[in-house]
């Protein structure tokens, strides 16, 4: 997902009105896509937190201290004092957090009064073509894929208006909402299938859990859906994210 996060990060930063010169907290930093894009624009200090130690280590290796700081931490229990950061971001993470309302409260707590705080989540049900190709196809073959499909398309904050409402409920002011779109471009079907081979995210989680013979059936069916009756090769799919921003 990192390559798509990088594509989205620029327009997300513009929507939020983030300044690259201010101290920034990146909640759910992953391997550092948001920090990398914001950091390329200016010289402010950026702190990233994520539950996955491997992601934190990878981000730290690419973006060294002292300007960049990455640490393992829970979005629902941020290890910072109140009123610490001048802006706070969460890019494509909150819909995977078990208690997103608590995470937003924590983001508000560590933000300085009046700080810009913004989040983005995928519109999984209505705006992710690459994801629907996989799960709509797999669900017709495997009941377990059907179950995971339903869970994936009903994650919190991913319906229209939910993200903005969550920011208001957390106490943010002047909340704005919008959408942002990127294009997910693949060289061929095997490039597309790397989402399953990587073993991460909803598609990867399903692929890890499926029996080998079932996964092969799903792969061949998804391949037919990717090809759409044409030769293998490049494909480009629209992908939409909900974005919302407010003031602490």
Notes on the protein architecture:
By secondary structure, the protein is α/β, with parallel strands linked by helices. Helices cover 43% and strands 24% of the residues. It has 10 helices and 7 strands. It has helices at 2-16, 33-39, 53-62, 100-110, 129-139, 143-153, 162-169, 189-197, 201-209, 212-227, and strands at 24-27, 46-50, 68-72, 85-91, 111-122, 173-186, 235-247. β1 (24-27), α2 and β2 form a beta-alpha-beta unit. α1 (2-16) crosses α2, α5 (129-139) packs antiparallel against α6 (143-153) and α5 crosses α10.
Helicity range: 40-55%
Please give the number of β-strands. 7
Tell me what portion of residues adopts beta-strand conformation. 15-25%
Order of helices and strands: HEHEHEEHEHHHEHHHE
Cα-atom radius of gyration: 19 Å
Mean pLDDT across all residues, rounded?
96
Number of helical segments with 4 or more residues? 10
Give the CATH architecture of the largest domain: 3-Layer(aba) Sandwich
Main sheet summary: 7 strands, mixed
Label the overall shape. globular
Order of strands across the main sheet: 3-2-1-4-5-7-6
CATH topology of the largest domain: Rossmann fold
- CATH H-level homologous superfamily name of the largest domain: Vaccinia Virus protein VP39
Q: Uncertain segments of ≥5 residues (pLDDT<50)?
A: none
Q: Under the CATH scheme, which class of the largest domain? A: Alpha Beta
User: What separation lies between the terminal Cα atoms?
Assistant: 29 Å
